[in-house]
């Protein structure tokens, strides 16, 4: 895997907030076709790392590369324009709008010709068609009505809509922040299957989670963050959850190479 060019890479990221150093020379690599889990204790710098990789935070030093090319994200919209989609824990869906409307929120399709260019009419039929196609591909078409309000959906279904939106528009990377944190067992299972489906469609996934069983179930590699930098990269088939916790808490040292 080390011979491949990472889809998304960070080298020596530094971010300070006054006297607090959130990132202290952090490194990161995401390779094609993998689920990379990012774990770490509270205050380890995970959120700052992900915000830097998604354009929500500008690092003080270091560099970020996409497919080997140096990029400098100005804001989250810039990162999105380059193919990085992030699903935050709050989901950022509009509860009163329908499923199709949420999938295309901020990226609505206009009708072809003068109706769209002059009268700015939305092509709702095409948005419904594409939304149905996305949900079908991800195995989410248990939802009966593509127009039903998101507020009528279960927690797992709302998470599914948010993930479907990221998979639809994320051409390079999908970042999921604690996707199962507020879900029950059955709905968590659905979201984990969804993560695998997104990976199987060719999109690499970054999974930030505190749920160790979920991490070890779906991740191909695990990035352990500690004290503002990467402490280790491990694999579920070579390390146990106890090993991960020991590295995460500093009880044992580990090499950063998998």
Provide a descriptive summary of the structure in words:
It is a single chain. The chain has 258 residues and is α/β, with parallel strands linked by helices. The protein folds into two domains: 33-57 and 74-96 and 150-249, Rossmann fold (3-Layer(aba) Sandwich), CATH 3.40.50; 100-148, no CATH class. The protein has nine helices and ten strands. It has helices spanning 46-53, 76-81, 99-103, 114-117, 124-137, 155-169, 185-200, 212-218, 241-249, and strands at residues 8-17, 20-30, 35-40, 61-66, 69-71, 84-87, 173-177, 205-208, 221-226, 229-234. The strands form two sheets. The protein has a six-stranded mixed β-sheet. Strands 2-1-4-5 form a four-stranded antiparallel β-sheet, covered by helices on one side. Helix 6 runs parallel beside helix 7. The longest helix has 16 residues, at 185-200. The termini are close together. The model has no long low-confidence stretch (mean pLDDT 90).
- Rg is 19 Å
- H/I helix tally: 9
Name the CATH architecture of the largest domain: 3-Layer(aba) Sandwich
The major sheet is characterized as: 6 strands, mixed
**Number of strand elements:** 10
* Spatial sequence of strands, sheet with the most strands: 6-7-8-3-9-10
Tertiary shape: globular
Just give the CATH class of the largest domain: Alpha Beta
Uncertain residue segments: none
* CATH topology-level name of the largest domain: Rossmann fold
């Amino acid at each position: 895997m080390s011979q491949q060019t990472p889809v998304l890479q960070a080298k020596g990221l530094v971010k300070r907030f006054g006297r607090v150093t959130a990132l202290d020379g952090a490194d990161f690599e995401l390779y094609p076709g993998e689920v990379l889990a990012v774990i770490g204790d509270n205050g380890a710098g995970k959120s700052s790392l992900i915000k830097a990789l998604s354009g929500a935070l500008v690092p003080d030093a270091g560099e970020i590369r996409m497919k080997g090319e140096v990029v400098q994200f100005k804001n989250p919209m810039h990162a999105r324009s380059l193919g990085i989609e992030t699903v935050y824990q709050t989901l950022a869906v509009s509860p009163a709008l329908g499923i199709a409307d949420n999938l295309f929120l901020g990226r609505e399709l206009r009708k072809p010709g003068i109706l769209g260019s002059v009268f700015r009419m939305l092509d709702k039929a095409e948005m419904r068609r594409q939304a149905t196609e996305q949900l079908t591909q991800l195995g989410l078409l248990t939802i009966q009505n593509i127009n039903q309000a998101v507020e009528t959906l279960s927690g797992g279904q709302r998470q599914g809509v948010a993930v479907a939106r990221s998979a639809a528009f994320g051409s390079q990377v999908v970042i999921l922040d604690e996707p199962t944190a507020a879900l029950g067992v059955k709905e968590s299972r659905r979201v984990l299957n969804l993560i695998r489906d997104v990976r199987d469609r060719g999109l690499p996934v970054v999974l930030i989670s505190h749920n160790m069983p979920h991490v070890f179930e779906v991740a191909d590699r695990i990035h352990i963050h500690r004290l503002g930098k990467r402490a280790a990269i491990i694999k579920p088939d070579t390390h146990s959850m106890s090993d991960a916790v020991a590295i995460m808490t500093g009880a044992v040292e580990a090499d950063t190479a998998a």
